[in-house]
Amino acid sequence: MDIIEMINKIDSDASGNKKSEISISVVSNFCQEPFFSKCLCLDFIEANTKVKIHYYNDMDFVYEEKKKELLGSDLIILFINYELKYDRGKNSLNQSYEDILNDSIALISFFEKNAHSHLFVIGYEDFYNLSHKVSGYQIQNCGIDYVNQQIKQRISKDTVMVDLKSLITVNGLKSSYDYKSFCRWGNPYSKILYQTLSKEIVQHYGRFMSKKIKCLVLDCDNVLWGGNVSDSGADGVELGETYRGYVYQKFQKYVFELFKRGMILTLCSKNDVQDVWSVFDNNSNMILKSEFISTYRINWMNKAENILSMSKEIGIDPGNMLFIDDSHNEIECVKQSIPGINVLLFQPDSFYEDISISYLDGEEALAESMLRTKTYKSNKMRTDLLESSATVDDYLININNEIEIKMAEEKELKRISELSLRTNRMSSQKRYDVTALRERYNRKDYQLFSVYVSDKFGDLGLVGCMGIDVSLQNLDLFCLSCRALGRHVENKMIEFIKINYPIEHVFFNRDSKNEGLYDLFVKNF
Amino acid sequence: MEISMHELRQMICSVMEAQKNVLDNENIDVEEVLNYDENKDLQAIGFDSLCYISLIVMIEEKYQVEFADSSLALVNMNSIYRIKNEVDAMLKNIA
Lengths: 525, 95
Description:
heterodimer; A: 6-stranded mixed sheet; 23 helices; globular; B: mainly alpha
């Protein structure tokens, strides 16, 4: 899209439908025009949000009159060009990487402490240094990579760090820079790079606004493999071996990486069931396995109805699902029929950018993902039993529901952290990364509990947690996975706390999602 | 070949409109542009350096031309008349 088209689209949208609106402050040491504001504006319009963007120089935050406006924005983007700040003219090579790191952390910390905004930090890049091409010197790339790595480790868990070097790699060096623009107005980056960067920011922001994708709904033919299995048979589909087949296999590998990091996988395909499973079971080039699939609708029915049915079955809101299909018609039909659902037209060349590398941020937890999938699979049996039971209490007796609450162990911290970060409905929404949680766990006056649930159909695993600041009589942490809902587990947890601890204070971050738990807390504490 | 005054005014309008919508700049007066004195300084109606950058890129993309660095100082192209002169000179050179 050239700049005329971008501007025309922005201008024509201005008088369009009402959208939510956010303010964005871009703090930078170089000119971001003409593309950054336009790219952000257009990508947020796609996400049904209008933006108002303000630019600030990286020293503006020291001025009182600009501080209030800057720190009150919905989103602050900190985009400092490394070369201009540290590696040009009189600044060149005067500072050690440690000095640069401390300088950067000081700036980021200022915003983390004082702003009520979501903070995005664009990482440094050193690809601008092309001198090695001319003189044969090797790029001294350890320094910037060290600085970026240290920044990522030290920033708050709520601050997003965008890996600029990865985005430049995706586009290629030649496409990412615009030296004409650099010489004219001091902006070294191209429209293409800004388009990629903007998409990345909008996707990250969407995750903050509870638009996080938790579940993929995958078509099969021409998404997981090339061709139609009903025509070609399990071994006749294109997967691995040929160029096209390799592209589909690469997509499966990517989906597997997402699965290992907690993404729920479902299938929605217009096919005969046995044909699809025959590929999973018999094609040796398959990366994905049937045991990774939580549920499926493989039939000739309307896909929107199928997706809604799966959403109800596994308890995932359509707004947290991403439907991926190679057919424009299916995409449009589902988009029109299910408000809020995310959709993606599968294109072999661009799925990395469309789904966003941000979902690969999390740590791998394959065992946990497998257990989660097993739970969803066995939910069908639980649903059938519930429907045949007279009351919920009968159901819980019939299902041999067992709840175990015990002191948490060190090896459970990763899972407990994941629960605190992922759960919304039955959660007081205290968020802990593993480091912060470990610090609490190691304190003598902090009691951390893990909650296990199992029944006759299987073990749901570690599905809940509670953290109590004993000396402060404060209920600090309370979460329960929605997998364990409908079993009165939350009541048992509250009962346990009330019996064992006097509670004077409760941490609770209330929103529309955890109203039910809020009411329960008000009743009990 | 040359750029018409009307077309240039339209381009300036759309750049300023986008700037107003996105950058929340209340000083921009888009309605003035269509009848603005072509010799008057555009900055008086809110045409700032960010609008200027967008306009330059827009003209270069549309006409497949490239402004010489020497002509890019805002002071050289701060009125509709001066911008038109500069663009017409480039278009004449490539014709």
